[in-house]
Amino acid sequence: MEDSHFRHSASHHPSPFNSSQSHQLQHLPRDRSASMLYNEATTTALEPHSPQQRSGSFSDEEGQPPPRYTPENDPFRLASKLKTAEEIKQIQPRANMARKRDSCTPAGIMRMTASTTKNPKEALSGSLASKSQLQGFYQTQNENIERMLKPVEEHVRTARETNANNQLKYKIAVYGSFAANIILSVLQLYGAIASGSLSLFTTMADAVFDPMSNLTLLLCNKAVNRVDPRKFPAGKARIETAGNICFCFLMTAVSFIIIAFSIRELVQGSESETGEFHLPSVIAVIVAFCTKFALFVYCFALRHQVSQIRILWEDHRNDLFINGFGILTSVGGSKLRWWIDPMGAIILSVLVSCLWLYTAYHEFQLLIGVTADTKMQQLITYISMTHSPLITAIDTVRAYTSGPRLLVEVDIVMDPNDSLRATHDVAEELQMKLESLPDVERAYVHVDYETTHKPEHFLKKEL
């Protein structure tokens, strides 16, 4: 892995089937008749459907599907590195083992006695922490190995089952939030107008714009599902991110307006020391707080699975703080000092602006195209390396966001003597396999015959 381009050279990722340690797998014969025998002996568990024969008869060896691997092959012997739960429990840091060996000598006994008498709690906690970190490392390694050895079809099936199981929960979260926000906006509108509290006006403004945000998310979701491929050949997935950004800036603009009104009230001052206390308004905001808490808990489990629900969860989280702090400052302004209410409105509006601007920054990162996480890059690299024995090396792997999903670019290396048909079929099947992954929107597979050339794509282009 070199720099941010995530470049994999032939020396870094050679084909496992061109190595002498590849589980008794020999070099792929370049003779076409031998290649045919290999094709007949190789099953296609990873890709159950064979590509359609384009032309020629069955006797044409170039019309046969390219050789592929099954999960049982495990050419890199990753399964041998899995640790059982019992083995992980017995793992001890090497530093502790060295201490045990040193403890047998008089000098080691003196050092251990001195260190434990100085701070025995610190020594014990440090040992437990290092052991826990080491065990956590092997648990994470097990998860990574199991994820890479899982067939692509299993990833697709799991994603479909998750979507099917969460479909009802998604509708409850979105439509339930929409209905609740409409009712709460009416309640908080009454509370703000009846009390005249700027803090409650801040909560009211946030509540009034919540149904608008829900409507935006619903419209974006429908737009994504209804795509004209002639007008939008790349789909409309990025419209979700664009809608989220628009809503973030809308909420920030409302917060700035409330800040301006609060500053004006502070400058004008007040003749009385406290404001007027209005109990029904406070009760209305308390009802909104409890409702938002219930929606927050419900959306918490689904926030990492659906982008719209993540935005709803963030909105409910922000509303909890806004409503709670708004109640305190409104009551404080009516019971303690009048300036607590407008000052609380300013603090609330500034915090709301910061929260939504941070969310907008995150959405902009997705829209611009930020590198995918390491786990996803590892999975894409492993799938590409083990796709076919005709692939001799992996030159480059790139995965970056394009809205809520990923774009993938893979440069594979094949023998220059391979036929155009074989090269095309290998690249096409790898492209379809990568695009079937749940988080991938589009995959591009490029074929080369060597890795010593300069980078083919540049980040900066002169016009």
Automatic annotation (TrEMBL):
One Gene Ontology molecular-function label: monoatomic cation transmembrane transporter activity
Q: Where are the transmembrane segments?
A: 172-193, 199-220, 241-263, 283-302, 338-358
Biological processes, Gene Ontology terms: inorganic ion homeostasis; intracellular monoatomic cation homeostasis
Source superkingdom: Eukaryota
Q: How does it sit in the membrane?
A: Multi-pass membrane protein
Give the originating organism. Answer: Aspergillus steynii IBT 23096
Q: Name one Pfam family in it.
A: ZT_dimer
Q: Could you tell me which residue ranges the Cation efflux protein cytoplasmic domain spans?
A: 389-448
Cation efflux protein transmembrane domain: residues covered: 177-364
> Could you tell me what this protein is called?
Uncharacterized protein
Alphabetically ordered keywords of this record: Membrane, Transmembrane, Transmembrane helix, Transport
List the taxonomic lineage: Eukaryota, Fungi, Dikarya, Ascomycota, Pezizomycotina
| Primary localization class, coarse | membrane
Q: Where is this region: Disordered?
A: 1-75
Name the GO cellular-component terms: membrane
Gene3D superfamilies linked? Cation efflux protein transmembrane domain, Cation efflux protein, cytoplasmic domain
Here the segments flagged for biased composition (Polar residues) are 16-25, 40-58
Q: Where in the cell is it found?
A: Membrane
